[in-house]
């Protein structure tokens, strides 16, 4: 068994997103990799990774897509989400489930920090489930 406390996991700023060959600047977004390929032995299988994101007020994660699916569970704040052709406002205890290759965008439309858990599936060599490894294949 592995136990990790959120405050013991280092937060990294997310300052850019490379999508279709373009570098998109970002600010006010942080990520903590709660689980990933580098934690635990082979018996953990590493079929998914869990990440904790924060978005400061009026900051965004630009529209992008990728091969892996992701589930986004809102913990706090108010987030405008666009996924595919649909738009909605997410609040605490809401879940957004994004399939492979569907473009999606998140924006904190509230006046406080927003936070969510993002669970992704690990593909192939599971490189997309390792902090700092750029294998998004966007």
From TrEMBL:
Keyword Metal-binding among record annotations = yes
Q: What domain of life is recorded for the organism? A: Bacteria
- Please provide the record's keywords in A-Z order: Metal-binding
Asked whether the keyword Secreted is assigned, the reply is no
Kindly give the InterPro entries that the UniProt entry links to this protein.
Cupin_2, GPI/OXD, RmlC-like_jellyroll, RmlC_Cupin_sf
Q: Which Pfam families match?
A: Cupin_2
GO molecular function terms noted in the UniProt entry: metal ion binding
Identify the residues that the record assigns to the Cupin type-2 domain, covering every copy.
Answer: 52-118
> Which Gene3D superfamilies does UniProt cross-reference here?
Jelly Rolls
Q: What is this protein called?
A: Cupin domain-containing protein
User: Organism classification, top ranks?
Assistant: Bacteria, Bacillati, Bacillota, Clostridia, Eubacteriales
């Amino acid at each position: 068994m592995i136990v990790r406390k959120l405050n013991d996991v280092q937060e990294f700023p997310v300052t850019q997103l490379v999508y279709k060959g373009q570098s998109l600047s970002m600010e006010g977004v942080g990520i903590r990799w709660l689980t990933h390929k580098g934690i635990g032995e082979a018996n953990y299988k590493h079929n998914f990774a869990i990440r904790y994101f924060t978005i400061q007020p009026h900051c965004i994660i630009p529209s992008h897509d990728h091969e892996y699916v992701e589930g986004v569970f809102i913990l706090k704040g108010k987030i405008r989400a666009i996924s595919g052709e649909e738009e909605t406002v997410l609040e605490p205890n809401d879940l957004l489930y994004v399939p492979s290759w569907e473009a999606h965008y998140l924006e904190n439309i509230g006046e406080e920090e927003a936070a969510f858990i993002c669970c992704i599936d690990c593909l192939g060599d599971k490189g997309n489930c390792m902090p700092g490894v750029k294998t998004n294949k966007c």
